Amino acid sequence: MPEITREEVAHLARLARLALDDSELDVLAGQLDVILGAVAQIAEVTDAADVPPTSHAVPLVNVTRPDAVVPSLPREKVLAGAPAAEDGRFRVPRILDDSA
Amino acid sequence: MTAVPYDEALAEFEPVIGLETHVELGTASKMFCGCATEFGAEPNTQVCPVCLGLPGALPVVNETAIESTIRIGLALHCDIATWCRFARKNYFYPDMPKNFQTSQYDEPLCTDGYLDVLVAGETVRIPIERVHLEEDTGKSLHVGGATGRIHGASHSLVDYNRAGIPLVEIVTKPVTGTGTMPAEVAKAYVTELRDVLRGLGVSDVKMEQGSLRCDVNVSLNRPGQEWGTRSETKNVNSLRSVERAVRSEVERQAFRLRAGERIVQETRHFHEDTGMSTSGRSKEEATDYRYFPEPDLVPIAPDPVWVATLKDALPEAPSVRRLMLTKELGLSDNDSEAMVNAGVLDVVLATVEAGTSATEARNWWLGHLAQSANTAGVDAADLPITPAQVARVVALVNAGTLTAGLARQVVDGVLAGEGEPDAVVVSRGLAVVSDEGALAAAVDEAIAADPDAAEKVRSGKVAAAGALVGKVMKATRGQADASVARRLVLERLGVTADLS
Ligand SMILES: [Zn+2]
What is the DSSP letter of B238? Predict the structure, then answer.
């Protein structure tokens, strides 16, 4: 069975910007193991039946639209949901730590 | 000194280069929503729930973006996928509101092509790995630090107008065998690629506005040894800088390798002002993007029949048009290559098409306009003047309305945003003055100011009239019709004008 390590969970958590403490890492490692085991079971069945992996539930291709401009949102509405705004722009905390 | 001179470095090491070029397509609307794509609009006025990544918003693919990408792939002799998917590239950055970029991963629209470029009279074939379609990010303005740099900023302000504009990424395979000219080859490739894209009409390819951007990969190895570790220099935003970025990286890496050091695999940032790059993100921070197929977009399956019609309708490649230019217009190979190197081939052709001779177009684009571009630090083709406007100035010169000097002033006016050539002639008062009444006073003043010259002319030394004509030209700020001024000077001094 898949064995996901605490280090792997910690790595994924870091990529997803989730702050997990040690006990949470243990719990999630176990849960992820169960989930990956379930997926592996499906893979066993589909491999045996030679079913290609599916990424979409509908048998459609080429759903497109013509290159036409439609009105955008008014800026007040755009910025209404921003935690902070300045000069018509979204204001975000500094991007780099200056220790870098 | 922390660099080995370029030529010396390349005598000792073999370069391997790679280029990733991002092209903003010139579609009217964005990649997955109907927001406009106009450059320079007020911040956050061209955004909607889709391109802001608001919950529940669903993307729909812009069909023109697909078509443009396939046309680019065809022009680069690529295979076109018969079935492919978009993928999510997951990472966090404030300029990307969805927290993932919709891109393509292992199923690009176009693969395995090439582009031939001319370097120092030789054709070099640049192999193309892939051409795929993705979306651009927003733009950040860094506040509180020095000169807008991200380092030392207290906070940043983000404009999402650019987020979601269709972006095509064109990736070369590693290019070997460039010998002593990796920088020249890199520049020639980007120049040629830009001409191809402009010819296709899929993008305005303005490097200074960021609609064409380059990342440059460089590694060095000693002959016969394995390829070295490569660095990736980002943020290379002019043709000149493509060359400078490769050159400075060759010089830097050669210094390290000679000193027995290792090259660190890293991302470097190029600075237009210094022509140097600085170290950016290093390997330990390198991101794991966790790509997976985009569930909100169904696959793209281009109909091969449609692709064939797109292929048949492709315009002539710039290399073919260049041959035509050289042969039919009687320009020399040197001129032709000079135009390619300056990136002005297409604008020269367009200027000829707008009615000038090949020589006139050449002289403007390799002369005054090239100088103006150099002064402004942009590529000549990106100057704010159109081939039609250049052709109009040429027509005004040929009609006798402008002298060569006045024509340059008119062009400067157009470049300064003063409007069309005819409007600049009027607003700056630049037309040639051939009206005799208007010139008479200047002629009299010139004669009064230089009695010696006047006397010589009276005594038959007609050549001395040149000094007087020069004074008239100066007094009229170059606007006098020189032949009329000369005739008036001679008449006034009792010499029969000889206009032959
Ligand atoms: Zn939008």
Answer: S
Q: Which of B71, B65, B64, B75 is closest to B310 using CA atoms?
A: B71
Domains observed in chain B: 6-310 (no CATH), 316-428 (no CATH), 436-492 (1.10.10.410)
Residues A11-29: pLDDT tens digits? 989 888 899 999 999 999 9
User: pLDDT per residue over B342-384, tens digit each?
Assistant: 778 878 888 998 999 988 998 999 999 999 998 988 888 889 9
Average pLDDT over residues A68-74: 97
Kindly report the nearest CA distance between residue B10 and chain A, in angstroms.
33
| Residue B60 CB neighbours (<10 A) | 15
The CA B382 to ligand 1 mean position distance, Å, reads 28
On chain B, the residues whose CB falls within 8 A of the CB of A15 are 90, 287-288, 290
CB-nearest to B27 from A64, A67, A94 is A67
Q: Identify whether the C-beta of residue A82 lies closer than 8 Å to the C-beta of residue A89.
A: no
Task: Kindly report the nearest CA distance between residue A26 and chain B, in angstroms.
Answer: 22
Q: What is the DSSP string of B151-173?
A: TT-SEEEEE-SSTT-EEEEEEEP
- Put simply, whether A54 touches B (Cβ < 8 Å) is no
Overall average pLDDT of the B234-259 stretch: 93
Range with lowest mean pLDDT among B5-19, B92-106, B339-353: B339-353
Q: Residue written as tokens 């176009």?
A: B110
Substitution target in B86, B150, B155 with the highest count of A β-carbons within 10 Å is B155
Q: Distance between CA atoms of B399 and A14, rounded to whole angstroms?
A: 71
Output B327 or B281, whichever has higher pLDDT: B327
Classified as helix, coil or strand, B493 is coil
Considering only CB atoms, which chain B residues are within 8 Å of A58?
A: 298
Q: How many residues does chain B have?
A: 500
- Supply the pTM of this predicted model: 0.78
What are the φ/ψ torsions at residue B311 (nearest 5 degrees)?
A: -65, -45
Cα–Cα distance for residue pair B320/B330, rounded to 1 Å: 15
Please name the member of A70, A73, A92 whose beta carbon is closest to the beta carbon of B47.
A73
What six digits make up the tokens of B5?
């001179």
Q: What does B322-389 look like in DSSP terms, one character per residue?
A: HHHHHHHTT--HHHHHHHHHTT-HHHHHHHHHTT--HHHHHHHHHTHHHHHHHHHTS-GGGSS--HHH
Q: How does pLDDT run across B144-194, given as a tens digit for each residue? A: 876 667 777 889 999 999 999 999 999 999 999 999 999 999 999 999 999
From the list A58, A68, A79, the residue facing B29 with the nearest CB is A68
Domains of chain A in sequence order? 6-43 (1.10.20)
- What lies within 8 Å, CB to CB, of B213 at 6+ separation is B21, B22, B207, B235, B236, B237
* The two structure tokens encoding residue B74: 């065809």
